[in-house]
Amino acid sequence: MLRDLHDDFPILSRTVRNGKPLVYLDSAATSQKPSAVLEAESAFYREHNGAVARGAHLLAEEATEAFESARSDVARLVGASPEEIVWTSGATASINLVANGIGDASLGAGGEEAARFRIGPGDRIVVTEAEHHANLIPWQQLAARTGAELAWIPVDDDGRFDLDNLDTIVNGSTTVLAFSHAGNVTGIVADVAPLVARAREVGALTVLDACQSVPHLPVDVAQLGVDFMAFSGHKMLGPTGIGALWGRKELLDALPPSVFGGGAIAIVTMERTTWLEAPMRFEPGTQPVAQAVGMGAAARYLMDLGMDQVARHEARLAQIMREGVAELPGVRLLGPVGDPDRIDVLGLAAVAVDGVHAHDVGQVLDDLGVLARVGHHCAQPLHRRFGLTGSTRASAHVYTREDDARAFVEALATVRSFFGVHA
Amino acid sequence: MSTLEQMYQQVIMDHAREAHGRGLVEVTLPAHGESHQVNTTCGDEVTLRVGLEGDRIASLSWEGQGCSISQASVSALSELLDGESIATADDTVEAFRALMQSKGEHLDEEREDLLGDATAFVGVGKYPARIKCALLGWMAFRDALIQARSASEGGQQ
């Protein structure tokens, strides 16, 4: 069991509207930060700030050391090597980095070593109907740029990937298969294995959006078997403005960069430039160093808690929220209730309340001090699949108490009577 | 009354439940305009149509889907402005915008008289995230009115 972590998160002691205690249940949008992260970022600026990988003075050395050791900490969290971790501004930037690299390779960038990434008319990119817009739009755009076709794996009524026609959707022309590890609306934790196996059969690259899984579940890139994986700092107790792309080293070394500048290069003449190896080739210009240091501290904080413990804690919260709301009249849970022993759903619950718009639901919750997310959660196609335009989502993290999860269910139970809607 | 109850006043709930002017009406008047507005944060939408006869709003109808605040607000607008003069409509739109920016404070009597039922939206001003909901239909009206006026000016030339 995880100990109660409220005291580690300063913001959780503040009050909200009407002096009510804060019940923060919007962690899937952004997580709160422990003192360990706030202090690491502050200490970097107060004691070590200097230009990373440039110059030979003491502060430059200390800043470089802090930046690179943060990379090692983040790598360790996902079972990777540090040289396979590229700093980005977040999961969105990580996915765009891969999609743009493939797009540029298709135009001839990166030379022969990048030829393996080239796609064009007749090729296929596959996503799923459940994706966050950040793992859909970059692939739509790549398809439009290259003439490749975009196809998608549908979801069933519960929101699970429907793999009945997997072999015809991920066909022999498929070059990229991009999908999410855990759903930000349904909370479903995907069974990655059959998708990776099929992608390998047809020689397609796999890109995993792991920004909802890395903060909440044990994640090991070797075990997953994917080729690229994107995640964000701010959802895993770290700062905003920082995230990571993990990729197989030989792929990262061959993928052409799409953002250019100093620090990413080997030799520059007036005519041409050669790139450094990964990860440096993807990190031109001054990096968000303090944020990287903060993300490293967040990774250490999570590893100290133990990701198995974190996952079990959140499975219990999932059970309280999902079983609780499933029993409320006029409330529809998006996705299955889930099985806490198998940890097949995240600690979140997105619901539609019959006869009450999500904004109005959120407002009543907010008045009770329960801060949840309303809207389409950047997943319009999935909401359309459910016949909805939006939903109300409560999402937990390591600091969420069982009472917080109960407060969501109790608050939700008052919504329909407030608006005078009855079964 | 809690701030939440101040926002969701009974008159707003009534408008949300039984909306006025809902259902787009065909306009054969030459001076007409239509506007479709979307609240990008939630996907709520309103399509609003107006027709002018001289300086009077002779037809005002709308269709939309969204939260109670956005739907009630366009309903209140429809009840207030259908049949009114353009000058009154302009003043009323300005008064409503001022009400949204008032952070929950009431306006002077003159403007509140103009707003009638729509004064009930005063509580929305305390919730910055909801101001867009309340303004959605009003922005559609303003835009449709501009189009109708330019159509009418074009017709006179």
Structure description:
The complex is a heterodimer of chains A (423) and B (157). In chain A, helix 6 links the parallel strand 5 and strand 6 (205-209). By secondary structure, chain A is α/β, with parallel strands linked by helices. Chain A folds into 2 domains: 6-30 and 307-418, Aspartate Aminotransferase, domain 1 (Alpha-Beta Complex), CATH 3.90.1150; 41-303, Aspartate Aminotransferase, domain 2, CATH 3.40.640. Chain A has 13 helices and 15 strands. In chain A, helix 1 (35-48) packs antiparallel against helix 9 (289-305), helix 3 packs parallel to helix 4 and helix 10 runs parallel beside helix 13. Chain A starts with 22 loop residues before the first strand and ends in a 5-residue tail after the last helix. Chain B contains 6 helices and 3 strands. In chain B, strand 2 (44-53) and strand 3 form a beta hairpin. Chain B is globular. Chain B is an alpha+beta fold and 157 residues long. Helices cover 50% and strands 18% of the residues of chain B. Chain B has one domain (3-22, 32-152): Sufe protein. Chain: A, CATH 3.90.1010.10. In chain B, strands 1-2-3 form a 3-stranded antiparallel β-sheet, covered by helices on one side. Chains A and B meet through helix 11 of A and helix 1 of B.
Please write the CATH class name of the largest domain in chain A.
Alpha Beta
Give helix and strand order of chain A, one letter per element, not per position. Answer: EHHEHEHEHEHEHEEHEEHHEEHEEHEH
Name of the CATH first level of chain B:
Alpha Beta
Shape of chain A: globular
The oligomeric status of these chains comes to: heterodimer
Mean pLDDT of chain A comes to 96
Strand content of chain B: 15-25%
Total number of strands of chain B: 3
